[in-house]
Structure formats: structure tokens, C-alpha cells
Design brief:
Number of strands: 2
Shape: globular
Largest sheet: 2 strands, antiparallel
Distance between the termini: 60 Å
Number of domains: 1
Strand order of the largest sheet: 1-2
Length: 270
């Protein structure tokens, strides 16, 4: 309704669609097609669009690479070089950086492209604002972290090196070992996923509130029409800031993944 002001509706945006006990679909698309096999909600649809966008972007950029690159090839090479030089090689070194580069690049591109819809008209929401995709990417990094340490030291030696702090009194191990285990194997993937989700969710909510307030002051509070100009300026300014957050969160996620892999590769160097 024109002029109506209300808080953002988290239920329809961020909670997955479902089928109730009566067989009625809620917030699901294609629920009647093929017995619901391909049913999906809006956020899952945006995720699929992002995956298609990644594929199309790199196909267009790299299908016919030239020595003098075009705009798509230049953008793709810039992104790939950024991940290779400033994340993988900077943290892991050239040898290990090259080894884990495909994983780190995949995580960076997924995070970046799935953050972008938060500022794209008619999408207006990042798939990373729901915990599912950040959790998947965090698990990818978590598996790589354990693999890197287990491959170098063997699993049990890696586990011991990760949780046992040397040169402390024996009785302190009763306290320190559970803390180190929780910090290394629980908090690392959890904080990766929650940090990304919380940043994209909070950005979405602030943008919704600013644009809703602009609509409210302009159409309903006639005496406050000037305030709508201020909220519109604030909304545009925050949109520009959100562009920085989009890139920064993808960078931080990929960077911390590389850092955790590096810590696993040197687990015995407490």
C-alpha cells in the first residue's frame, strides 16, 4: 500500500519455504511441478541466478582470451590475480597458494557474486543473508583446513598439535585442551558463516528501513516531505557503502579460509 510503513518481513525473505501437514505449500515456487521435485523459494532462486551469472561471466571472459584483453577478460583476470596474489600467495606462499588456489578462488567468487544481489533492483537481497550458503562455504574451508593438517602430519598428530599447547604445567591441559579444541574446530567455521550472514542481513535490513522511511515520509507525512529527501540521501549513501561491504566480506571470508589452512599447515608451531 502506498505510504504504508512497516518493519521488514523476515519470515517471507529469510526462512525457507515449506509444505505443511495438509500438503499446502508456503513461500515455494514450482511446488505443483513434477510433484514438487523442483520446488524452491525466492532466496534459492536468487542463488541459482548467481551461479548462472558466475558461469556466464567467466565463459564470456575466458572463451577466447587475447593478449590485449577486452572488458570482461580484464575484469576476470583482475579478480583472479587479486585472489592469487593478495590472498593465496600472500598467506600460503607460492607453492601452497597454488595448491589451494582453486578452493580459495571458488569461495571468493561465490561470496562476491552472492553478495551483489543485495544492491540489485528487484532482487534486493543477498543469498548469503540466510545461513545456508555461508555455512556451505565455511564447511568447504573447514574440510580443506583439516585435510591440509592431516595430510602433512597425519590426522592424530595434527589433532594433538592443534589442541595441546606445549611448555605449560600438565594440570592446565585439563582447561586449555577443550578451549583450544572448541576455538579451532568449532568457532572457526561458525564465526566464518555467522560473520558473513550477519553483515549481509544487517545491510539488507538497513536499506529496507531507509527506503521504506523515504516512501512513508514522502507519501503519508506531508509535513515531513523534506525528511524523505534526507532518508533518500542516506539510502543512496548506504547503498554505496554496501558495495564496499560486498567486496570486503568476500575478501575477509577467503582471507580467513587461507589463514586457517596456513595455521593447519604449521599446527606444530605454537
Amino acid at each position: 500500500m502506498k505510504g504504508e510503513f512497516h518493519a521488514p518481513d523476515l519470515f517471507h525473505e529469510f526462512f525457507p519455504g515449506f509444505v505443511d501437514g495438509n500438503g499446502e505449500a508456503h513461500n515455494l515456487w514450482l511446488s505443483d511441478f513434477a510433484g514438487g521435485l523442483f520446488a524452491l523459494d525466492r532466496l534459492m532462486f536468487v542463488r541459482l541466478l548467481c551461479v548462472v551469472a558466475i558461469i556466464v561471466f567467466f565463459v564470456l571472459a575466458m572463451r577466447d582470451p587475447k593478449k590485449v584483453p577486452g572488458k570482461f577478460q580484464s575484469m576476470a583476470e583482475m579478480l583472479l590475480d587479486f585472489v592469487r596474489i593478495h590472498i593465496a600467495e600472500d598467506i600460503l606462499g607460492k607453492k601452497e597458494g597454488r595448491r589451494f588456489l582453486p578452493l580459495i578462488t571458488t569461495i571468493f567468487m561465490l561470496a562476491l557474486f552472492m553478495n551483489l544481489p543485495s544492491v540489485i533492483p528487484f532482487l534486493n537481497i543477498s543469498p548469503n543473508a540466510r545461513i545456508g550458503m555461508p555455512l556451505v562455504m565455511a564447511l568447504m574451508g573447514y574440510i580443506a583446513m583439516i585435510y591440509a593438517g592431516a595430510k602433512r602430519y597425519g590426522f592424530f598428530k595434527f589433532l594433538k598439535s592443534s589442541v595441546v599447547v606445549p611448555n605449560i604445567p600438565w594440570f592446565l591441559h585439563i582447561l586449555v585442551v577443550p578451549i583450544e579444541f572448541f576455538s579451532t574446530f568449532i568457532l572457526r567455521p561458525a564465526t566464518l558463516a555467522i560473520r558473513l550472514m550477519a553483515n549481509m542481513l544487517s545491510g539488507h535490513l538497513i536499506l529496507v528501513l531507509l527506503f521504506s522511511a523515504t516512501n512513508f515520509f514522502f507519501w503519508q507525512f506531508n509535513g515531513w516531505m523534506a525528511v524523505s529527501g534526507l532518508t533518500l540521501i542516506a539510502a543512496v549513501a548506504f547503498t554505496l557503502f554496501e558495495l564496499l561491504v560486498i567486496f570486503l566480506q568476500a575478501y575477509i571470508f577467503a582471507l580467513l579460509t587461507a589463514v586457517y589452512i596456513e595455521l593447519s599447515l604449521h599446527a606444530d608451531e605454537h
